[in-house]
């Protein structure tokens, strides 16, 4: 397995990273993939998948987490973000896939939640499923809609708190970043205030940018030329998922989510006209019960004017930037439809 870029000498930002340097450093967070990669008829090829991010291992419907989303540029086809921003909570896994598979993944995730929470839609209300997407149609025969509802269920069941598998896996199987193979990447940061440490993790689905936009080439010292880079007319997209154990309100999470755009910009993105750049952020610090008879509730949150907020802003920017680099450095050269090849970024010589 390819090493992460800082294991080879590169350094992004000033804050320390977590033990695994990915989103599962936030205790309780789990990530699972289903990768779909095989030939179809008529020169078509399935090169896609599903990724699931679970804030904790219990019932997400019965024990919701505080959440928010932020749209940097809205050329995207997500589901569920309207309610997330209205109520400030997340009650389902965050699911990632390709553009045309959002309906199938939504259906599969819904069925999983119905099967594991018998009260939904019966003795209580309905559920809000959150799905994000990027267009993998250069490598994947996207019109064939090969992702099935059961793939969403399997991705959820595959979710673990172990090191996140990155690169051309799950929803990232067919994605392209800066003309090279992109996909899933993740990183984490630790911030400390008054002897209390908090972790923030970022997971990205990178599918944006052209070769001339990339500002991170100085980290990849073996890079000699970009002659193997793919030229695409589309602007591409990215989904960024932020997790933290810091006690933040949904409004504070929105503020943190905005700073992920700084990390995205540092890599070379200018949030193109046709780019769907969307951030989904949640905090695991406090669970919000679905059923309660209480009229009021008490929650702890960080002070707005404490320096720790600026550290969390920096953590969101740094972790997102490094996660994007990991989506490149961990990916492998991939063949897709019509015999198209997208090369892995030549990153073996990452260094000073």
UniProtKB/TrEMBL annotation:
One Pfam assignment: Peptidase_S58
Membrane-crossing residue ranges in chain numbering: none
SUPFAM superfamilies, per the entry: DmpA/ArgJ-like
CDD domains tied to this protein: DmpA (cd02253)
Domain of life: Bacteria
Entries under Gene3D superfamilies matching the protein: L-amino peptidase D-ALA esterase/amidase
GO molecular function annotation: aminopeptidase activity
Homology family: Belongs to the peptidase S58 family.
Name of the protein in its database record: P1 family peptidase
Annotated organism of origin: Brevibacillus antibioticus
């Amino acid at each position: 397995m390819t090493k992460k870029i800082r294991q080879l000498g590169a350094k992004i930002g000033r804050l320390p990273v977590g033990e695994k340097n990915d989103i599962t450093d936030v205790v309780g967070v789990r990530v699972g993939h289903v990768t779909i990669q095989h030939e179809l008829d008529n020169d078509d090829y399935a090169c896609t998948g599903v990724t699931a991010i679970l804030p904790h291992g219990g019932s997400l419907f019965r024990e919701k987490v505080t959440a928010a989303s932020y749209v940097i540029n809205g050329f995207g086809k997500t589901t569920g973000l309207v309610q997330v921003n209205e109520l400030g909570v997340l009650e389902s896994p965050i699911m990632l896939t390709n553009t045309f598979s959002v309906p199938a993944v939504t259906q599969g995730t819904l069925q999983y939640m119905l099967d594991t929470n018998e009260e939904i839609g019966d003795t209580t209300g309905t559920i809000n499923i959150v799905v994000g997407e990027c267009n993998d149609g250069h490598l994947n025969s996207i019109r064939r809609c090969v992702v099935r509802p059961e793939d969403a269920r399997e991705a959820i069941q595959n979710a673990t708190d172990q090191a996140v598998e990155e690169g051309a896996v799950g929803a990232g199987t067919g994605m392209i970043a800066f003309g090279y193979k992109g996909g899933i990447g993740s990183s984490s940061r630790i911030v400390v205030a008054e002897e209390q440490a908090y972790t923030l993790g970022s997971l990205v689905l990178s599918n944006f940018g052209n070769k001339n936009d990339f500002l991170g080439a100085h980290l990849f010292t073996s890079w000699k030329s970009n002659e193997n880079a793919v030229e695409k007319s589309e602007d591409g997209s990215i989904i960024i998922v932020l997790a933290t154990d810091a006690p933040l309100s949904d409004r504070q999470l929105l503020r943190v989510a905005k700073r992920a755009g700084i990390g995205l910009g540092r890599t070379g993105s200018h949030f193109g006209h046709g780019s769907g750049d969307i951030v989904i952020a949640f905090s695991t610090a406090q669970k919000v019960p679905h059923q309660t008879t209480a009229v009021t509730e008490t929650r702890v949150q960080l002070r707005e004017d404490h320096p720790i907020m600026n550290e969390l802003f920096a953590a969101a920017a740094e972790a997102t930037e490094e996660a994007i680099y990991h989506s490149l450095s961990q990916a492998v050269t991939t063949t897709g439809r019509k015999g198209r090849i997208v090369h892995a970024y030549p990153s073996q010589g990452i260094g000073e």
